[in-house]
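Agenda item 2: S-adenosyl-L-homocysteine complex prediction
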Amino acid sequence: MPLADLNKTELEALLSGLGEPKYRVRQVYEWLNKGARPEEMSSLPAKLREELARIPYGGVEIERKFVSGQDGTVKYLFRLADENLVEGVLMRYHYGNTLCLSTQVGCAMGCKFCASTLEGCVRNLSVGELLGQIHAVERDEPAKEPGHRTVTNLVLMGSGEPLDNYDNVVAFLNRVTAQDGLRISPRNISVSTCGIVPKIDAFFKDAPHVTLSISLHAHDDETRTSLMPINKVYPIGEVIAAAKRYADQTGRRVVFEYALIGGVNSSLSDADSLSARLRGILCHVNLIPLNPVPERGLSGVSRTEAERFCQRLAERNISATIRREMGTDIEGACGQLRRRILHEIRSENGNR
Ligand code: SAH
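Presented output:
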């Protein structure tokens, strides 16, 4: 197994196999929690560094990086050891920096407005590749003050369906929040799902303190199924009931994501029906201006229409905000950058 993927028990086994004393486990684990490469593990004897350097590292490297001239948002294209590419986005807010990270190469869910899923799911990301995205960003942009982190908040909203890579995502969240891990507060972490109901039920036992976001995008089965094929397996009523169980059992507000799509789900009567469905649930609606994906032929709505929709929800006592668009000049939307670069690489190869 690559070094970046080892948990503490596996690291213990590795180091004891190399004849190392027990106290080395903590030392190496601390280095791995910073994403350090063996040659940088300066507190270790040279011989051990050399032995560790013989093991494949895993994790991620930065393939390309784009900085928005508008708001300083950074879009990263990460390269995995097998040459696959995934995206991450670093967004700057007054309270800190949020990293949006990917959980799979591609995605199997087939949502009609999403660029990440156009070529299906290639594979799950490992724990080391999930952690590696944070490490890569923090190595690229170290925190200004010692003891602080560059990445203070995480959203699992890049490419992939987190609950379709369940075990790795839960292990990652445990490591990220642990006192002997990265020590990021679970309250600063959001996990977004298209609504895999049995996994939502398991998730609030395995990760009760993170915020759960559910991509709803419609208030009725017919529209939701036309946008999100997963709705055929877990219809909207079951998804909302699971969200309610999550809110009731954790005492945490569930966030519903709702992309406003012109002529599909964005009229005022849609806002009324949505409010009726969500009544009585501890929740917040995050309205997302659709990032048009040319391959999909779906369009967004104007700012005024989005504001009217938001206002109507408020009048019906449903808490709602419109998500700020960030980094639109650098293809902030999921999957778009990876697709363009893959096309470029393929056509470069084709032209050789
Ligand atoms: N698979 C997870 C997380 C990844 S997508 C999920 O479905 O929630 C993160 C969010 O971006 C989801 O709400 C998704 O529906 C939304 N999204 C995807 N493509 C989009 C687009 N073109 N415009 C606006 N939002 C989009």
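Discussion summary: The chain is about 35% helix and 20% strand.
Owner for follow-up: CH.
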